[in-house]
């Protein structure tokens, strides 16, 4: 399933790029506010992090575009132990969203699309104790990203807000299913931007 989704996204990217009006490359970065949702109703708290990466903005038609990205994303969650202390779980992903965008004439855009996440590191920290926990989590995460953005047409600078909804269980072991949930706020710059 994951392989098929990756192949589908790559194929769509190739097809739309060959029919594109023009392509812009850019850089982006910003703030993450992530937690997880588990089906055992355990409560977790938001963990702040950051995202940093590259994007391509591909104009397909006058109002429509495709925006693939490759982004390092610092995610995870916090939860309260019985002792009252907090444990922080850091999950670092390379995320590859492919967003379909509708572009308004004033620079605003609405966007949504699939996202593939590749886990590159995980660590659990409680007080001064820190252990690697990557083996407890699956290597891949599939999600859906949706949000809005605005680009200032003359400069190519913009702002972005999106919500990422994980749809695959990230736990490798046990009977509890957990899913990534996160809000991303950021800025970006499109090099040689054209409307």
Task: Throw out a few tags for this protein.
195 residues, eight-stranded antiparallel beta barrel, mainly beta, 9% helix, 63% strand, elongated
Account of the protein in words:
The protein has 195 residues and is mainly β. Helix content is 9%, strand content 63%. An eight-stranded antiparallel barrel has the order 1-2-3-4-5-7-8-9. Strand 5 (108-126) and strand 6 (129-132) form a beta hairpin. The protein is elongated and about 55 Å long. Mean pLDDT is 88; it is low at 16-20.
* Widest sheet, order of strands: 1-2-3-4-5-7-8-9
- Which series of helices and strands comes N to C? HEEEEEEEEE
Low-confidence parts, pLDDT < 50 over ≥5 residues? 16-20
Outline, from the CA principal axes? elongated
Rounded mean pLDDT score:
88
Proportion of beta-strand residues: over 45%
As a whole number of angstroms, the C-alpha radius of gyration is 18 Å
Name the structural class: mainly beta
| SS summary, helix count | 1
Proportion of helical residues: under 10%
Question: Quick one: biggest sheet?
Answer: 8 strands, antiparallel, barrel
- Specify the oligomeric state: single chain
Instruction: Give the terminus-to-terminus CA distance.
Output: 36 Å
The total strand number stands at 9
């Amino acid at each position: 399933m994951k392989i098929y989704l990756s192949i589908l996204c790559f194929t769509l990217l190739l097809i739309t790029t060959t029919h594109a009006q023009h392509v812009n490359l850019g850089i982006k970065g910003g703030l993450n506010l992530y937690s997880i949702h588990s089906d055992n109703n355990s409560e977790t708290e938001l963990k702040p992090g950051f995202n940093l990466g590259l994007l391509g903005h591909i104009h397909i038609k006058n109002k429509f575009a495709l925006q693939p990205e490759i982004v390092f994303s610092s995610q995870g969650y916090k939860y309260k132990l019985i002792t009252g202390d907090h444990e922080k779980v850091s999950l670092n992903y390379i995320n590859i969203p492919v967003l379909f965008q509708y572009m308004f004439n004033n620079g605003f855009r609405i966007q949504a699309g699939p996202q593939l996440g590749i886990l590159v590191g995980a660590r659990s920290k409680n007080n001064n104790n820190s252990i690697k926990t990557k083996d407890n989590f699956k290597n891949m995460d599939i999600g859906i990203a949706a949000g809005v953005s605005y680009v200032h047409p003359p400069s190519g600078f913009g702002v972005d807000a999106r919500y990422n909804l994980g749809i695959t269980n990230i736990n490798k072991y046990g009977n509890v299913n957990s899913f990534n949930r996160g809000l991303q706020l950021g800025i970006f710059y499109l090099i040689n931007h054209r409307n």
